[in-house]
Amino acid sequence: MTPVEKVKKRNSSSAYPRKAENLVKTGESIEREFGIPIVNKRITVTPISLVGASSCKSEDDFVKIAHALDRAAKKVGVDLIGGYSALVSKSMTPAEELLIRSLPKALSETDIVCSSVNVGSTKTGIDMNAVELLGHIIKDIAARTADNDSYGCVKFVAFCNVPDDNPFMAGGFHGVTEGDAVINVGVSGPGVVSRALDAAVGRDFEFLCETIKRTAFKITRVGQLVAQEASRRLGIPFGIIDLSLAPTPAVGDSVGEVLEKIGLEQVGAPGTTAALAMLNDQVKKGGIMASSYVGGLSGAFIPVSEDKNMIDAAASGCLTLEKLEAMTCVCSVGLDMIAIPGDTSAATISGMIAVGIRHIHQPLKSESIRRWRSGESRRGNAAKS
To answer: 113-143 burial string, b = 16+ CB within 10 Å, else e?
Structure first.
Protein backbone atom coordinates (compact mmCIF):
# COMPACT_ATOMS: atom_id res chain seq x y z
CA MET A 1 0.00 0.00 0.00
CA THR A 2 1.40 3.38 -1.00
CA PRO A 3 1.61 6.31 1.45
CA VAL A 4 -1.24 8.05 -0.35
CA GLU A 5 -3.40 4.93 -0.12
CA LYS A 6 -2.70 4.80 3.61
CA VAL A 7 -3.87 8.40 3.97
CA LYS A 8 -6.97 7.65 1.91
CA LYS A 9 -7.76 4.62 4.05
CA ARG A 10 -7.32 6.57 7.27
CA ASN A 11 -9.66 9.31 6.00
CA SER A 12 -12.35 7.18 4.43
CA SER A 13 -12.90 3.58 5.44
CA SER A 14 -11.79 3.76 9.06
CA ALA A 15 -12.25 7.04 10.92
CA TYR A 16 -15.55 8.31 9.53
CA PRO A 17 -17.75 5.23 9.92
CA ARG A 18 -16.62 4.89 13.57
CA LYS A 19 -17.23 8.52 14.52
CA ALA A 20 -19.78 9.82 12.04
CA GLU A 21 -21.80 6.89 10.73
CA ASN A 22 -24.79 7.81 12.93
CA LEU A 23 -24.46 11.60 12.71
CA VAL A 24 -27.20 12.12 10.12
CA LYS A 25 -29.55 9.59 11.69
CA THR A 26 -29.10 11.21 15.09
CA GLY A 27 -29.69 14.69 13.68
CA GLU A 28 -32.88 13.58 11.98
CA SER A 29 -34.19 11.95 15.15
CA ILE A 30 -33.52 15.12 17.16
CA GLU A 31 -35.37 17.13 14.50
CA ARG A 32 -38.42 14.87 14.79
CA GLU A 33 -38.48 14.69 18.58
CA PHE A 34 -37.87 18.36 19.34
CA GLY A 35 -39.36 19.98 16.23
CA ILE A 36 -36.12 21.86 15.61
CA PRO A 37 -34.90 22.03 11.99
CA ILE A 38 -31.25 21.09 11.49
CA VAL A 39 -30.61 22.51 8.05
CA ASN A 40 -27.23 20.92 7.35
CA LYS A 41 -25.20 18.08 8.79
CA ARG A 42 -21.49 18.57 8.21
CA ILE A 43 -18.14 16.99 8.99
CA THR A 44 -14.79 18.71 9.29
CA VAL A 45 -11.37 17.06 9.33
CA THR A 46 -7.85 18.10 10.28
CA PRO A 47 -6.36 20.34 7.56
CA ILE A 48 -5.38 17.99 4.76
CA SER A 49 -2.17 19.89 4.09
CA LEU A 50 -1.01 18.51 7.45
CA VAL A 51 -2.52 15.04 7.07
CA GLY A 52 -0.98 14.52 3.65
CA ALA A 53 2.30 16.37 4.14
CA SER A 54 4.47 13.28 4.50
CA SER A 55 2.72 11.24 1.82
CA CYS A 56 1.71 13.61 -0.95
CA LYS A 57 4.47 14.45 -3.41
CA SER A 58 2.31 15.94 -6.17
CA GLU A 59 -0.91 17.82 -6.72
CA ASP A 60 -2.58 14.62 -7.91
CA ASP A 61 -1.72 12.92 -4.61
CA PHE A 62 -3.72 15.56 -2.76
CA VAL A 63 -6.56 15.27 -5.27
CA LYS A 64 -6.81 11.55 -4.45
CA ILE A 65 -7.41 12.49 -0.81
CA ALA A 66 -10.11 14.95 -1.92
CA HIS A 67 -11.87 12.09 -3.73
CA ALA A 68 -11.56 9.91 -0.61
CA LEU A 69 -13.14 12.66 1.50
CA ASP A 70 -15.97 13.04 -1.02
CA ARG A 71 -16.71 9.31 -0.96
CA ALA A 72 -16.55 9.11 2.83
CA ALA A 73 -18.88 12.09 3.31
CA LYS A 74 -21.41 10.66 0.88
CA LYS A 75 -21.20 7.29 2.62
CA VAL A 76 -22.28 8.76 5.95
CA GLY A 77 -24.84 11.02 4.25
CA VAL A 78 -23.70 14.48 5.35
CA ASP A 79 -24.30 17.57 3.24
CA LEU A 80 -20.73 18.91 3.23
CA ILE A 81 -17.25 18.03 4.43
CA GLY A 82 -14.64 20.66 5.22
CA GLY A 83 -10.95 20.55 5.91
CA TYR A 84 -9.31 20.36 2.49
CA SER A 85 -7.36 23.26 3.87
CA ALA A 86 -3.98 24.88 4.46
CA LEU A 87 -2.81 27.26 7.19
CA VAL A 88 -0.22 29.56 5.61
CA SER A 89 -0.45 32.82 7.56
CA LYS A 90 3.35 33.12 7.70
CA SER A 91 4.63 31.09 4.75
CA MET A 92 3.88 27.96 2.73
CA THR A 93 5.54 24.57 3.07
CA PRO A 94 5.97 22.58 -0.17
CA ALA A 95 3.01 20.39 0.82
CA GLU A 96 0.80 23.39 1.53
CA GLU A 97 1.62 24.94 -1.81
CA LEU A 98 0.86 21.63 -3.54
CA LEU A 99 -2.55 21.51 -1.86
CA ILE A 100 -3.33 25.08 -2.88
CA ARG A 101 -2.30 24.38 -6.47
CA SER A 102 -4.47 21.24 -6.45
CA LEU A 103 -7.62 23.20 -5.56
CA PRO A 104 -8.93 23.74 -9.12
CA LYS A 105 -8.82 20.01 -9.86
CA ALA A 106 -9.92 18.87 -6.41
CA LEU A 107 -12.94 21.18 -6.19
CA SER A 108 -14.00 20.55 -9.78
CA GLU A 109 -13.87 16.76 -9.45
CA THR A 110 -15.66 16.46 -6.09
CA ASP A 111 -19.19 17.37 -5.09
CA ILE A 112 -19.28 18.20 -1.38
CA VAL A 113 -15.65 18.79 -0.40
CA CYS A 114 -15.03 22.31 0.92
CA SER A 115 -11.71 24.12 1.19
CA SER A 116 -10.16 27.05 3.00
CA VAL A 117 -6.76 28.72 3.13
CA ASN A 118 -5.75 30.89 6.07
CA VAL A 119 -3.41 33.54 4.67
CA GLY A 120 -3.01 35.90 7.62
CA SER A 121 -3.06 36.33 11.38
CA THR A 122 -2.76 39.10 13.92
CA LYS A 123 0.60 37.79 15.09
CA THR A 124 2.31 37.01 11.77
CA GLY A 125 0.67 39.40 9.30
CA ILE A 126 -0.32 38.41 5.77
CA ASP A 127 1.43 35.86 3.56
CA MET A 128 1.35 37.90 0.35
CA ASN A 129 2.88 35.07 -1.67
CA ALA A 130 -0.15 32.95 -0.81
CA VAL A 131 -2.49 35.86 -1.53
CA GLU A 132 -0.90 36.37 -4.95
CA LEU A 133 -1.19 32.65 -5.74
CA LEU A 134 -4.86 32.53 -4.72
CA GLY A 135 -5.77 35.14 -7.31
CA HIS A 136 -4.73 32.70 -10.03
CA ILE A 137 -6.21 29.68 -8.24
CA ILE A 138 -9.64 31.33 -7.95
CA LYS A 139 -9.72 32.06 -11.67
CA ASP A 140 -8.72 28.45 -12.40
CA ILE A 141 -11.42 27.06 -10.09
CA ALA A 142 -14.06 29.15 -11.85
CA ALA A 143 -12.83 28.12 -15.30
CA ARG A 144 -12.75 24.40 -14.45
CA THR A 145 -16.34 24.46 -13.18
CA ALA A 146 -17.73 26.94 -15.72
CA ASP A 147 -20.14 24.33 -17.08
CA ASN A 148 -21.72 24.20 -13.59
CA ASP A 149 -21.99 27.95 -13.02
CA SER A 150 -18.42 27.91 -11.66
CA TYR A 151 -19.73 26.14 -8.59
CA GLY A 152 -16.26 25.10 -7.47
CA CYS A 153 -15.68 28.60 -6.11
CA VAL A 154 -18.72 28.21 -3.85
CA LYS A 155 -16.68 25.68 -1.87
CA PHE A 156 -13.63 27.84 -1.19
CA VAL A 157 -12.82 30.53 1.40
CA ALA A 158 -9.68 32.60 2.06
CA PHE A 159 -9.36 33.43 5.75
CA CYS A 160 -7.30 35.32 8.26
CA ASN A 161 -7.29 34.51 11.98
CA VAL A 162 -9.33 31.41 11.24
CA PRO A 163 -10.79 29.73 14.35
CA ASP A 164 -10.13 26.04 14.96
CA ASP A 165 -13.77 25.27 15.76
CA ASN A 166 -15.76 26.95 12.98
CA PRO A 167 -18.77 24.77 12.02
CA PHE A 168 -19.78 26.90 9.02
CA MET A 169 -18.83 26.01 5.46
CA ALA A 170 -16.90 26.45 3.33
CA GLY A 171 -14.34 27.48 5.95
CA GLY A 172 -14.78 24.77 8.56
CA PHE A 173 -11.98 22.39 9.54
CA HIS A 174 -11.07 20.37 12.62
CA GLY A 175 -8.35 22.45 14.24
CA VAL A 176 -5.14 21.01 15.62
CA THR A 177 -6.07 22.24 19.10
CA GLU A 178 -9.22 20.10 19.12
CA GLY A 179 -9.62 16.62 20.53
CA ASP A 180 -10.20 13.46 18.51
CA ALA A 181 -13.84 14.31 17.78
CA VAL A 182 -16.25 17.00 18.94
CA ILE A 183 -19.81 18.22 18.32
CA ASN A 184 -19.94 21.90 17.27
CA VAL A 185 -23.25 23.56 16.39
CA GLY A 186 -23.82 26.72 14.41
CA VAL A 187 -27.01 28.61 15.22
CA SER A 188 -28.48 31.19 12.89
CA GLY A 189 -31.90 32.81 12.82
CA PRO A 190 -31.90 36.31 11.30
CA GLY A 191 -35.55 35.73 10.47
CA VAL A 192 -36.37 35.12 14.12
CA VAL A 193 -34.56 38.33 15.13
CA SER A 194 -36.35 40.24 12.38
CA ARG A 195 -39.78 39.13 13.55
CA ALA A 196 -38.91 39.93 17.16
CA LEU A 197 -37.96 43.47 16.14
CA ASP A 198 -41.49 44.08 14.90
CA ALA A 199 -42.37 44.56 18.56
CA ALA A 200 -39.68 47.22 18.90
CA VAL A 201 -41.16 49.63 16.37
CA GLY A 202 -41.52 53.05 17.97
CA ARG A 203 -39.75 51.98 21.15
CA ASP A 204 -36.50 53.40 22.53
CA PHE A 205 -32.98 52.22 21.78
CA GLU A 206 -32.66 50.30 25.04
CA PHE A 207 -35.76 48.24 24.25
CA LEU A 208 -34.34 47.51 20.79
CA CYS A 209 -31.07 46.19 22.25
CA GLU A 210 -32.87 44.13 24.88
CA THR A 211 -35.09 42.56 22.22
CA ILE A 212 -32.08 41.44 20.19
CA LYS A 213 -30.31 40.09 23.30
CA ARG A 214 -33.35 38.16 24.50
CA THR A 215 -33.94 36.67 21.05
CA ALA A 216 -30.28 35.66 20.69
CA PHE A 217 -30.49 34.03 24.13
CA LYS A 218 -33.48 31.92 23.09
CA ILE A 219 -31.93 30.89 19.76
CA THR A 220 -28.69 29.92 21.45
CA ARG A 221 -30.45 27.87 24.13
CA VAL A 222 -32.06 25.85 21.37
CA GLY A 223 -28.64 25.29 19.80
CA GLN A 224 -27.24 24.26 23.17
CA LEU A 225 -30.08 21.76 23.59
CA VAL A 226 -29.41 20.22 20.18
CA ALA A 227 -25.65 20.08 20.77
CA GLN A 228 -25.91 18.43 24.17
CA GLU A 229 -28.49 15.93 22.98
CA ALA A 230 -26.38 15.00 19.95
CA SER A 231 -23.33 14.71 22.19
CA ARG A 232 -25.15 12.35 24.55
CA ARG A 233 -26.54 10.13 21.80
CA LEU A 234 -23.32 9.92 19.80
CA GLY A 235 -20.97 9.66 22.76
CA ILE A 236 -18.86 12.56 21.44
CA PRO A 237 -17.96 15.60 23.58
CA PHE A 238 -19.84 18.87 23.06
CA GLY A 239 -17.55 21.60 21.76
CA ILE A 240 -18.97 25.04 21.06
CA ILE A 241 -21.98 27.00 19.86
CA ASP A 242 -21.27 29.42 17.01
CA LEU A 243 -23.54 32.44 17.38
CA SER A 244 -23.72 33.58 13.78
CA LEU A 245 -26.61 35.21 11.95
CA ALA A 246 -26.29 33.58 8.54
CA PRO A 247 -28.92 34.72 6.01
CA THR A 248 -30.47 32.86 3.10
CA PRO A 249 -32.08 34.27 -0.07
CA ALA A 250 -35.53 33.44 1.35
CA VAL A 251 -37.82 36.34 2.13
CA GLY A 252 -37.76 37.11 5.85
CA ASP A 253 -34.38 35.43 6.51
CA SER A 254 -32.17 38.44 5.91
CA VAL A 255 -29.51 40.17 8.00
CA GLY A 256 -30.10 43.21 5.78
CA GLU A 257 -33.75 43.23 6.84
CA VAL A 258 -32.69 43.20 10.50
CA LEU A 259 -30.42 46.18 9.91
CA GLU A 260 -33.22 48.06 8.20
CA LYS A 261 -35.61 47.34 11.08
CA ILE A 262 -32.99 48.74 13.43
CA GLY A 263 -33.46 52.02 11.57
CA LEU A 264 -31.58 52.12 8.27
CA GLU A 265 -33.40 53.37 5.20
CA GLN A 266 -31.52 50.68 3.26
CA VAL A 267 -28.40 48.60 3.82
CA GLY A 268 -25.43 50.70 2.77
CA ALA A 269 -26.92 53.99 3.93
CA PRO A 270 -25.10 56.11 6.53
CA GLY A 271 -25.14 54.28 9.85
CA THR A 272 -24.89 50.80 8.35
CA THR A 273 -21.56 49.95 9.99
CA ALA A 274 -22.75 51.24 13.36
CA ALA A 275 -25.99 49.25 13.10
CA LEU A 276 -24.06 46.09 12.24
CA ALA A 277 -21.68 46.63 15.14
CA MET A 278 -24.60 47.05 17.52
CA LEU A 279 -26.32 43.93 16.16
CA ASN A 280 -23.18 41.84 16.63
CA ASP A 281 -22.66 43.18 20.13
CA GLN A 282 -26.20 42.41 21.28
CA VAL A 283 -26.24 38.95 19.67
CA LYS A 284 -23.01 38.02 21.46
CA LYS A 285 -24.17 39.43 24.80
CA GLY A 286 -27.41 37.46 24.61
CA GLY A 287 -25.84 34.29 23.26
CA ILE A 288 -22.90 34.04 25.63
CA MET A 289 -25.25 33.83 28.62
CA ALA A 290 -27.13 30.96 26.97
CA SER A 291 -24.28 28.57 26.24
CA SER A 292 -21.51 26.87 28.17
CA TYR A 293 -19.03 27.41 25.36
CA VAL A 294 -19.13 29.94 22.54
CA GLY A 295 -16.67 29.81 19.64
CA GLY A 296 -16.34 29.65 15.88
CA LEU A 297 -17.00 32.86 13.99
CA SER A 298 -19.88 34.13 16.17
CA GLY A 299 -21.19 37.22 14.42
CA ALA A 300 -23.36 38.38 11.56
CA PHE A 301 -22.58 37.19 8.03
CA ILE A 302 -22.93 39.65 5.16
CA PRO A 303 -23.03 37.45 2.03
CA VAL A 304 -24.45 39.82 -0.56
CA SER A 305 -25.73 37.21 -3.01
CA GLU A 306 -27.38 35.17 -0.24
CA ASP A 307 -29.32 38.00 1.40
CA LYS A 308 -32.41 39.41 -0.35
CA ASN A 309 -32.23 42.87 1.19
CA MET A 310 -28.53 43.16 0.43
CA ILE A 311 -29.18 42.07 -3.14
CA ASP A 312 -31.77 44.84 -3.44
CA ALA A 313 -29.39 47.39 -1.88
CA ALA A 314 -26.56 46.42 -4.22
CA ALA A 315 -28.87 46.57 -7.24
CA SER A 316 -29.98 50.09 -6.28
CA GLY A 317 -26.38 51.24 -5.84
CA CYS A 318 -26.78 51.91 -2.11
CA LEU A 319 -24.53 49.02 -1.04
CA THR A 320 -21.05 49.33 -2.56
CA LEU A 321 -17.79 47.44 -2.29
CA GLU A 322 -16.33 50.30 -0.26
CA LYS A 323 -19.19 50.12 2.25
CA LEU A 324 -18.80 46.34 2.49
CA GLU A 325 -15.11 46.81 3.25
CA ALA A 326 -16.07 49.14 6.11
CA MET A 327 -18.60 46.59 7.39
CA THR A 328 -15.90 43.91 7.57
CA CYS A 329 -14.40 45.85 10.48
CA VAL A 330 -17.24 44.88 12.79
CA CYS A 331 -18.63 41.55 11.56
CA SER A 332 -17.36 37.99 11.71
CA VAL A 333 -16.60 37.67 8.00
CA GLY A 334 -15.22 39.90 5.29
CA LEU A 335 -16.13 40.36 1.64
CA ASP A 336 -18.60 37.57 1.07
CA MET A 337 -20.52 36.40 -2.00
CA ILE A 338 -19.87 39.48 -4.10
CA ALA A 339 -20.37 39.46 -7.86
CA ILE A 340 -17.38 40.63 -9.91
CA PRO A 341 -16.86 40.46 -13.69
CA GLY A 342 -15.53 37.22 -15.13
CA ASP A 343 -12.63 38.99 -16.81
CA THR A 344 -11.33 40.39 -13.51
CA SER A 345 -7.58 39.79 -13.42
CA ALA A 346 -5.85 37.50 -10.94
CA ALA A 347 -3.92 40.52 -9.64
CA THR A 348 -7.15 42.37 -8.88
CA ILE A 349 -8.62 39.35 -7.09
CA SER A 350 -5.45 39.05 -5.00
CA GLY A 351 -5.69 42.75 -4.20
CA MET A 352 -9.29 42.34 -3.07
CA ILE A 353 -8.29 39.47 -0.79
CA ALA A 354 -5.50 41.59 0.72
CA VAL A 355 -7.87 44.52 1.24
CA GLY A 356 -10.51 42.25 2.75
CA ILE A 357 -8.14 41.01 5.45
CA ARG A 358 -6.38 44.32 6.05
CA HIS A 359 -7.89 44.61 9.54
CA ILE A 360 -6.02 41.64 10.98
CA HIS A 361 -4.29 43.90 13.48
CA GLN A 362 -7.51 43.73 15.49
CA PRO A 363 -7.17 41.03 18.18
CA LEU A 364 -9.37 37.97 17.72
CA LYS A 365 -10.69 39.32 14.41
CA SER A 366 -11.73 36.59 12.00
CA GLU A 367 -12.51 37.43 8.42
CA SER A 368 -13.14 35.37 5.34
CA ILE A 369 -13.14 36.16 1.67
CA ARG A 370 -15.71 34.49 -0.55
CA ARG A 371 -16.25 36.00 -3.92
CA TRP A 372 -18.85 35.40 -6.62
CA ARG A 373 -17.35 35.90 -10.07
CA SER A 374 -18.89 35.24 -13.45
CA GLY A 375 -17.56 32.22 -15.31
CA GLU A 376 -15.25 33.04 -18.19
CA SER A 377 -16.37 30.37 -20.62
CA ARG A 378 -20.05 31.28 -20.45
CA ARG A 379 -21.33 34.82 -20.09
CA GLY A 380 -23.44 35.19 -16.98
CA ASN A 381 -22.12 32.15 -15.10
CA ALA A 382 -21.33 32.77 -11.46
CA ALA A 383 -19.04 31.33 -8.82
CA LYS A 384 -18.04 32.06 -5.28
CA SER A 385 -14.59 32.07 -3.82
So the answer is: bbbbbbbbbbeeebbeebbbbbbbbbbbbbb
| Preceding amide of 170 cis, omega within 30 | yes
Tell me how far apart the alpha carbons of residues 331 and 327 are, in angstroms, rounded to a whole number. Answer: 7
pTM above threshold 0.85: no
Contacts of residue 136, Cβ cutoff 8 Å, sequence gap at least 6 = 346
Q: pLDDT of 73-100, one tens digit each? A: 888 888 888 889 999 888 889 999 999 9
8 A C-beta contact, residue 283 and residue 216: yes
Kindly provide the residue ranges of all beta strands, DSSP E only, lying in 120-182, ordered along the sequence: 120-121, 125-126, 156-160
The DSSP letter of residue 257 is H
CA dist 235 and 74 (Å) reads: 22
Helix (H) or strand (E) holding 368: strand 367-373
Alpha-carbon dihedral sign for residues 33, 300, 79, 240: negative
CA–CA–CA angle 11, 293, 189 (5° rounding): 85
> Is the distance from CB of 304 to CB of 311 less than 8 angstroms?
yes
